[in-house]
Amino acid sequence: MAPVDNLLKKQLAQIKARALMLAGRASSDDGDSGASSASPPANEIIESVVRTGAVTRGRDFPRAAVTRTEERPRRFPWWFRRRQVREERHGFEGAFQRMLEQLSSGDPLGIEEAVPGLVTATDSAPFYLIRRHGPDLDPLAAEESARFGGFSAWPAGIVRTRVGSHAVDGIEIVKRNGVPDPRGVLFLDIETAGLSANTYAFLVGLMYWEDGRFVSDQVFARDYNEEEGMLRHVRATMERFDTVVTYNGASFDLPFLRQRMTVLRVPDIAPIESVDLLHAARRVYKPVLPNCRLVTVEKHLRGVERVDDIPSRFIPRAYHEFVHTRDARLMRNVVYHNRMDVFTMAVMLNRMGEIPLATQAAGDTIPPPNPPHVTF
Predict the structure, then answer these.
(1) What number of other Cβ atoms are within 10 A of residue 100's Cβ?
(2) CATH number at residue 324
(3) Please, what sign has the CA dihedral across residues 143, 148, 153, 158?
(4) Which phi and psi (to 5°) does residue 210 adopt?
(5) 332 with 340: CB under 8 angstroms?
(6) DSSP 317
(7) CA 108 to CA 325: how far, in whole Å?
(8) Alpha helix locations (H) across the chain?
(9) Comparing C-alpha atoms, which of 131, 141, 243, 143 is closest to residue 186?
(10) What would the pLDDT profile of 47-83 be if each residue is shown by its tens digit?
(11) Distance CA 168, CA 166 (A)
């Protein structure tokens, strides 16, 4: 209670000082006998200097006319003015509308026309499935899938953790003593309608190696109530693999999925090994790149930028716009963004796997790949 008492005493002293100042100012303005009697006794030295004209009392200066309140422009607080200027110059909504005008060209499209797929269901819960493989996935899919099929060891710096909370009856999670089996690796990336835990996941990109090629399954919720079917399909897919590869998934993607599964009463994912490439990418690419964002690493590896991509910060707003208008033109860009994120993980893993074994044993001294080696 002592700090509170001190604070109250300080505030009371400030109030008293303010009241005395106002009372003294009012008495000096009145100029009556009562005010003069309340003023301090005159100093003869100061009075003599004033009489000679060497100095002038402040109260004797001419005062400027005070403008009435209604004639003065309204002045908002500094923080409000700064926020208003920032929103006018760099406002999110203004930037989104400009992006919307650039990407949403042509007539409105339904989701089946914008992104061909199949309406399916898991446990009677519907969702929209977009499947691609080969050149439809990416022009380099055949080359990268061949590299990935020859994996013999996990790259240096790869840390595997365990996620999932229950056993699965009748499903054996194969362990191969640290040697990755391409058939047991699942790449995963999610898109959400916001960053808080009480929002939705509406798109999950899954990519796996099957029959010597990469297959991409993008599970999309066409409305908020299709999230449950999407999550049930994701959970059933993850049960088929022993390792899931993500980019910042250990901190965001996997906890977010498990949180949404809990909210929607979907059983938790089966126990599975998790590899987060973000930590390994920081060790390898941080010395040579301005940042370790996935699009930055992708540009470094491939030497080209994405075409018709949508910035990550606009994706939640674009999904809400689709749900309300049913215009799926922006969803083409969102699906493309998600697919490229998933495919870039495989490209990155391939490049890290090409680092010599002698260098891998050095641990933290892994050098970044030089541009001639990683560009194609």
Answers:
(1) 16
(2) 3.30.420.10
(3) positive
(4) -145, 130
(5) no
(6) H
(7) 9
(8) 2-30, 33-38, 44-52, 78-90, 92-103, 111-114, 141-149, 227-238, 254-263, 277-285, 294-302, 315-325, 329-353, 357-360, 371-374
(9) 243
(10) 777 777 777 776 676 665 545 545 555 666 766 666 6
(11) 7
CB 369, CB 281: distance < 8 Å: no
Evaluate whether residue 64 is within a structural domain: no
Give per-residue pLDDT as tens, 276-317. Answer: 999 889 988 888 899 999 999 999 988 888 888 898 989 999
Number of domains in the chain: 1
At 297 the pLDDT is: 92
Separation CA 186–CA 61 (nearest Å): 82
Q: How far apart are the first and last CA of the chain?
A: 69
Strands 125-133 vs 213-220: parallel, antiparallel or unpaired: antiparallel
Looking up tokens 């949180």, which residue turns up?
259
Length of the chain (residues): 376
Domain-embedded: residue 35: no
Q: Record the tokens describing residue 250, joined without a space.
A: 């250990």
Q: Which domain holds residue 215?
A: 111-374
pLDDT value at 36 more than 60? no
Which DSSP state fits 339? H
Say if 196 falls within a structural domain.
yes
Q: Is the dihedral of CA 12, 15, 21, 27 positive or negative?
A: negative
SS3 (DSSP) at 318? helix
Rounded to an integer, what distance in angstroms lies between the CA atom of residue 193 and that of residue 256?
A: 12
Backbone angles phi, psi at 203, to 5 degrees: -150, 130
Per the CB < 8 A criterion, the answer to whether 148 and 214 are in contact is: yes
Whether 96 maps to a domain, the answer reads no
Is residue 295 within 8 A of residue 309, CB to CB? The reply is yes
- Can you give the pTM of this predicted structure? 0.70
HEC per residue, 225-281: HHHHHHHHHHHHHHCCCCEEEECCHHHHHHHHHHHHHHHCCCCCCCCEEEEEHHHHH
Q: What is the pLDDT of residues 225-238, one digit of tens each?
A: 999 999 999 999 99
